[in-house]
Amino acid sequence: MLKINLLPMKTNSPHVALFIPCYVDQFYPKVGIASLELLEKLGCKVSYPAGQTCCGQPLANAGYERDTVGATRHFIELFKDFDYVVAPSGSCVLHVKDHSPSISGLEKEQEELHHKIFELTEFITDILKVEKLRGSFPHRVGYHASCHGQRGLRLASSSELNQTLFNKAQKLLENLDGLEWVELSRTDECCGFGGTFAVTEEALSIRMGKDRLEDHVLHQTEIITGGDMSCIMHLEGIATRNGQKMKFMHVAEILNQAIS
How many separate domains does the chain show? Predict the structure, then answer.
C-alpha cells in the first residue's frame, strides 16, 4: 500500500485562494482540480473565488495595459483578504506581481498582494516548506522550464548565470518512486509560445517548439511536464500535428496523482 506523507489539517492552516488562469479554466480544468486537491492534501484550506476573471496579461502583453485597469482592480479586491493566492501558472503570477498597472486607492492592498501570490511549486517549497513528497509515478519525465517562471519568478536556475543549480519542480518530482528525471541538452530554452508571439511570429514560434520537442525525443522523454499549461499546450499541439506520441501533464497533475 502506498504511504503518503501529508501535512495534518490545522485550525491555523493558511487560507489559500486558488487563482485559475483563463486558458486553464477553459481548456484544462483538470489542472485546476488537481491544484485544488493537491493543496488540500498538503493541509491548506482552499477557496476558489467564483468571481475571478482574467488577470489582464494577454491585453497587457499586446500593448493595451490601459485596458487592464478594471481587471487588475477586480483582482485585488477579490483576493486581498486571503492569506495567500496560488496559481498553477508562473506567467500569470509574474504579471500580477511585476507587470500589472498601479491602481489608485488600492496601493496598500496591491503591494500586499504582490508578496502573497505564488506559483504552485513555489508555494509548496517556499511557504509550506515541503522537502519531500512520498508517492509513485513510474515514468520518464521531461520538464519544460517556462521563461516567466524561470527567469521572472526564479523557479529554477538559468544556464546563462553563474549560480548554484536548482529547480523547485524537480525538488518535488525527483523523489517520487519510479520517476526518472530526464536531463535535457538545453534545459531552459524557450518553447516559442510567448502568448501573442505565437500568433504574430507563427513560423518562428513553431520552429522553436519543434526544437524543444526534438530535445525530449532525443532523450526518450515519456511525459513532458511544466508549470505553465500555455507552453505545454503549444508543445502538445506541435507534437500532435507531427504524430509524436508523447504525453503532456501539468506538474500539479503528476504530484496529485502520485500521492493520491
Answer: 2
Has residue 135 got a pLDDT over 50? yes
Does one domain contain both 145 and 119? no
Q: Write the CB contacts of 259 (distance below 8 Å, at least 6 apart in sequence).
A: 2, 4, 6, 38, 41, 133, 134, 135
Task: Give the residue numbers spanning the domain of 251.
Answer: 140-258
What span, in angstroms and rounded, lies between the C-alpha atoms of 123 and 210?
31
Query: Which residues have a Cβ under 8 Å from the Cβ of 210 and sit 6 or more positions away?
Result: 238, 242
CATH code at 160? Answer: 3.40.50
Cell (9 digits) for 219:
532523450
The average pLDDT across 49-72 equals 91
pLDDT at 13: 83
d(CA 214, CA 142) in angstroms, rounded, equals 12
